[in-house]
UniProtKB/TrEMBL annotation:
Keywords: Membrane, Metal-binding, Transferase, Transmembrane, Transmembrane helix, Ubl conjugation pathway, Zinc, Zinc-finger
Principal subcellular localisation of the protein: membrane
Organism: Malus baccata
Protein name (Swiss-Prot/TrEMBL): RING-type E3 ubiquitin transferase
Enzyme Commission designation: 2.3.2.27
PROSITE patterns in the cross-refs: ZF_RING_2
GO terms of biological process kind: protein ubiquitination; ubiquitin-dependent protein catabolic process
Catalytic reaction annotation: S-ubiquitinyl-[E2 ubiquitin-conjugating enzyme]-L-cysteine + [acceptor protein]-L-lysine = [E2 ubiquitin-conjugating enzyme]-L-cysteine + N(6)-ubiquitinyl-[acceptor protein]-L-lysine
């Protein structure tokens, strides 16, 4: 994960930021998933009785989705769609202005339309400038490898000049977003204040302004709704989300060989009268390592006899995978995750970069 300059604008944005940037169709997707996850955790955590490890897994999965989402929104197809979308606004705006020359609105709606078009043009300039700076720095050309490589800004050509240029672009975009919000309020007031009289005197300008205003509101609603739905899906249907990512994204995490090197265990339940290694255990079950001659049973407490990814209790005979950080999950659940991201979904321990024993298992 990135540990230096924030080059993923999506991470850390609030819903308020998204409302101010509503016209950025593809550059900024739904509000941050981790924020929606925390809200959903507070609202339904007691009903669902999610344990803290399961919640941490879901918050880390939401973070992974955010970073991949940020990469997708900065990819060339997304940027092209964004530019085309804003270009449509500019063309439609100028066309209606040309067709409504003879209209005499009661309020300065022409000035508002011209201002709206200029804001679109400024946004397009910021998008192009940011894209070329990232391309010159090597970011985006290396695919999604940068998401999981753990490289710092230097891996992106992160000179101080790049950071300064990015900061200037961000400040310009923030100023453009703030002024866009103010301009939207002004347009809403003029349309509402003009009412029927404005519709009668200048119908083309009236409907153009209404269309721009309605689109912005609709886009805000879609963004917030999408964020909430994805947050709920991550919380309740995480295995499905992982399966979708496994199928549609680059598998730039661990390879099959690296995953197969991790120990695999078979779970067995323990009744009250059973013994493990000659001693009565007050545990839910035990893990027996597969593919080894010296089979040793490892007891598991009742609280830990559950996969934090799918929230299912371990069934007798279930195959488990244990990571170097000692966290264990269903093989079918964790193997797909490790193909996407070679870190423990609970504590973020990187299985490809072993650390000291004192670091393992720290959250």
């Amino acid at each position: 994960m990135m540990n230096s300059v924030d080059i993923h604008p999506l991470i850390g944005y609030s819903i308020g930021d998204e409302l101010l940037q509503s016209r950025r169709l593809m550059r900024h997707g739904p509000p941050p998933l981790r924020g929606a996850m925390r809200l959903f955790r507070r609202a339904s955590g007691r009903r669902m009785r999610l344990r803290d490890p399961s919640v941490r897994v879901r918050e880390n999965a939401a973070e992974e989705l955010e970073e991949r989402q940020s990469f997708w929104f900065h990819s060339k197809p997304a940027i092209i769609l964004d530019l085309l979308w804003n270009l449509v606004f500019v063309i439609v705006g100028f066309t209606v202005l040309g067709l409504s020359v003879e209209e005499k609105p009661l309020v300065p709606m022409r000035i508002w339309v011209v201002g709206y078009i200029l804001l679109c043009v400024v946004h397009v300039g910021c998008v192009v400038a940011a894209y070329w700076r990232r391309r010159e720095a090597g970011w985006g050309s290396g695919g999604s490898e940068s998401l999981v490589s753990g490289s710092n800004v230097g891996g992106y050509g992160g000179e101080h000049g790049l950071a300064d240029d990015t900061s200037i672009t961000k400040n310009l975009e923030s100023a453009n977003s703030m002024f866009s919000f103010i301009w939207w309020v002004i347009g809403f007031y003029w349309v509402l204040n003009g009412g029927q009289a404005l519709l009668s005197s200048s119908p083309r300008l009236y409907w153009l302004c209404v269309s721009f205003l309605v689109f912005d509101v609709a886009f805000i609603i879609v963004c917030v709704a999408a964020s909430c739905l994805v947050g709920i899906a991550v919380c309740c249907f995480l295995p499905c989300i992982i399966a979708i990512l496994y199928a549609v994204t680059d598998q730039d995490g661990a390879t099959d060989e690296e995953i197969d090197r991790l120990p695999k265990f078979k779970f067995g339940r323990v009744s009250n009268s059973e013994k493990v290694n000659g001693e009565v255990q007050a545990s839910e079950g035990f893990m027996t390592e597969c593919d080894t001659n010296a089979q040793t049973d490892h007891p598991i407490s009742q609280a830990d006899a559950e996969c934090c990814i799918c929230l299912s209790v371990y069934e007798n005979g279930a195959e488990l995978r244990q990571l170097p950080c000692q966290h264990h999950f269903h093989c079918t659940c964790i193997d797909k995750w490790l193909h996407i991201n070679a870190t423990c979904p609970m504590c973020k321990f990187n299985i490809l970069r072993p650390r000291g024993r004192h670091e393992i298992g720290q959250v």
